[in-house]
## 1
Amino acid sequence: MLLIGMLDSPFVRRVAVSMQLLGMSYQHGNWSVGRDFERIRQYNPLVKVPTLILDDGEMLSESGLILDYLDQSVGPERALLPASGRARRDSLKLMAPAIVVAEKARDQLQEVFFRPEDKRHAPWLERLQAQMHAGLQLLDGECQRRGDGQWLIGSSMTQADISVTCAYTFANEALPDAAIAAKYAHLGRLAARCEMLEPFKGTHQPFFRPSG
């Protein structure tokens, strides 16, 4: 299989971490939508990352779809997202704000890096920041409720822990002025615990900042 996308994307990274945790071998196309637009388009006409090319040539796009495919491939006993019941619903309820954090952090970066300074809209940036911090606060509160040193769902790591950690690390590293680590200590401790594990270490890529 071929996984396309840079690992400084939390969406690409949560797929890569999941594949490693599940023991799935893959090649990695560490390609940027900006720098490698035409190269990615050869595999995915939408030029979206992550994109996963299966061994038979089938193309899967969007991290949620890819993660579902991975879980279906290994079966419910090994799946990273609980298959049913309250545990599945609670996992999805935590993954939802994690995706908001990742998306709103990404949108802030796009506003700064790709829009001329005189065209930036301060109220829009403030809204993005408020949405991101709301997600972080919710997740930090859940980490505190569960207790430091615990997983978010049950007694073992699930996709909730993976997605939350990837979103937190991305936002924290990409937006240093937001002081995320100082504000959300319980969430930071969960992320630090995950980042010590080999699948996280092996997929950590410092955030790439465009020049200029």
Note: The chain has a mean pLDDT of 95.
## 2
Amino acid sequence: MATYPGIDYSGTGATCNRDATNGIRYGVISTGSLTECFWDSVENDYGEATCPKCGNPAEEGCIDDEPDYPDWTDHGSDYFCRDCHYSFNSENAFPEEALGWSIDDGEYKVIDCLDTDAMIILAPYYTYAQFCSPCVPGAGNLDTPMAEGVKCYCFGHSWFDGEQAPYPVFRVDTGEEVQS
């Protein structure tokens, strides 16, 4: 366990990367530290539908619903672009690779962070950890737990192999430690 808390790069009095309602900071952890089942909870984000021809926002629907446009080019019936008079299917409206991912399951709110990390922005649990580097100012680095560190949201024990978190886990609502 770490003994140096690090530097709070968010600055004195800053409120970034923390819950405004209770002051608990966001927790950041490498996705490699979590059980593979973590990915079963993730919802990929492909962004908004766009026209593959011009890149403008696409509208959901079929050109058959647009009789005022007889010069439509029909390449599918899921989406259409008013600017190009072009229709297309959903596989052409979104990128092949996800733009990001998130978890919002009613218990946790987690977003992707720094390509390989997860940022926990709401959870029923917290722990104490070293401050994150300047990359996520004000947040806690869950890969470096610290008894006298910053209070931050964390995953519970079930998110780790062997159902044992690498840090002590406390309930937000009671402050009681949760055993694995």
Note: The two ends are 18 Å apart (CA to CA).
## 3
Amino acid sequence: MPKLAIFSAPKPFTNPHIATIQRNAMRSWLELGPEVEVILVGEEVGLAEAAAELGVRHLPDVRRNAEGTPLVSSIFDMARKNSNSPLLAYVNADILLLPDFLDSAKQVAQSANNFLVVGQRWDLDVRERMEFSTGWQDQLLLDVKKRARRHVATGSDYFIFPRSCFADMPDFAIGRAGWDNWMIYAARYMGWACVDASEAIQIVHQDHDYSHLPGNQPHYKLPETFENIRLAGGRLTIFNLLDADMRLVDGKLLPAKRTSAKFWREVEIFPLIRLKSYWLGQLFYAICHPRKAWYYFRQGQR
């Protein structure tokens, strides 16, 4: 039985560049070996053909919102119901993975019962279909060292967790901002180990434009993003990697690094994750960020 099920909801394969980088990503997942199974969810153009070409499982009947965007809750539920793997991992379909992904997942699972593993990515311009011959991992890491850029710690492109976690999720729209931040918030709220694996896992994001989105706009400007934030419980639930309470280093789980920024952030979110009080969270936010709080108050935002 596979130990890890990687699942994703790819974009349509109509844009040649998007099609290329998605195939690259999925091929890299398959290179992780027989302990990993790959599941593709959705009915996007070209997805069934890509799944057949790669020899991976395809689940087409995903629920969607009124705009036709697949729902994160449905994607996660379908992956869980169609896999027996003890660990699940949602990975964005443009992300290249290396063997450290599976190794790190197993290491965390040996140290914690309930957890979420997230981490930073490297951004790399990839234009051609990759050849997965002997030594491709070394070549990729060389390209990362020469040309890649470290992405800021505000977004997450993968989530590793036990199959019992995240069984009840809001109906977020996939591919829009907010839901990935909620994942980190939910893990901290539930008291699970929230692990920043940036030091242990090297993932590579293949650059692309936003031609697949309405109006060619970045996802954080779309109305569905604002709906995601509402479903998450409000802007205070927009957590990022700074909010992880653990880190994975040399195969071991360690507490998050102690910095002044981390200390004050923990003070700020204490009412949310410890006292489970949103209104006290708003108060602490106003104390820590008076100008931003006043702006949001004037805008009528929670």
Note: The chain has two domains: 4-249, 259-299.
